[in-house]
């Protein structure tokens, strides 16, 4: 397949497609019940579809699902987070991640040019993001907090517990 075999559009996936694309691409699948609210609060979402199933240049077929996605979250002006860049394994290595990244960066430049855009890069994607101007935050350190699915590790056992 070539670049012209796909259509890249702004839009939101269904919660199930979002969940499945994350899971299939090796990312942690989120709790499905939290996905609708999360998607509704997106600043921008970009999806890729196979052209052969499109009804026209901007309308996916009825049964068609996105094969790749990427999202921006944030306040829409000063602080944004780029997340969920995921490509279905059957469609990887065809430039879809790069096309989605370019659309997201263009969206930021057009709609929030003063924004500080952050992201957390999975090891296999760490070479992609510098192509779009992203830099390591060193000497700062990225951090996270997540209760869902967290396994307590590297914490000393409490006496008497």
Protein traits:
20% helix, 161 residues, 3 helices, disordered C terminus, 19% strand, alpha+beta, Aminopeptidase
Question: Would you write up a description of this structure?
Answer:
By secondary structure, the chain is α+β, with helices and mostly antiparallel strands. It contains three helices and five strands. The protein has a five-stranded mixed β-sheet. It starts with 5 loop residues before the first strand and ends in a 43-residue tail after the last strand.
H and E order? EHHEEEHE
Computed over alpha carbons, the radius of gyration is 17 Å
Q: What structural category arises from helix and sheet content?
A: alpha+beta
What sort of overall outline do the alpha carbons produce when their principal axes are compared? Answer: globular
Query: CATH H-level name... which superfamily?
Result: Gcn5-related N-acetyltransferase (GNAT)
CATH class: Alpha Beta
- State the distance separating the first and last CA atoms: 57 Å
Number of domains: 1
Question: Could you give the count of β-strands?
Answer: 5
Mean pLDDT: 89
CATH topology tier name: Aminopeptidase
Q: What kind of sheet is the major sheet? A: 5 strands, mixed
- Describe the strand arrangement of the main beta sheet, using strand numbers: 1-2-3-4-5
């Amino acid at each position: 397949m070539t670049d012209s075999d796909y259509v890249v559009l702004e839009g939101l996936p269904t919660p199930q497609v979002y969940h499945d694309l994350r899971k299939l691409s090796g990312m942690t699948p989120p709790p499905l019940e939290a996905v609708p609210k999360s998607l509704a609060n997106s600043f921008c979402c970009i999806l890729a579809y196979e052209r052969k199933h499109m009804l026209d240049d901007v309308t996916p077929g009825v049964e068609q699902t996105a094969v790749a996605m990427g999202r921006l979250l944030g306040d829409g002006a000063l602080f944004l987070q780029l997340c969920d860049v995921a490509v279905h394994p059957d469609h990887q290595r065809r430039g879809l991640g790069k096309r989605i990244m370019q659309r997201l960066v263009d969206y930021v430049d057009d709609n929030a040019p003063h924004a500080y855009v952050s992201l957390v890069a999975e090891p296999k994607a760490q070479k992609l993001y510098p192509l779009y101007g992203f830099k390591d935050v060193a000497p700062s350190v990225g951090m996270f907090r997540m209760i869902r699915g967290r396994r307590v590790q590297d914490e000393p056992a409490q006496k008497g517990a």
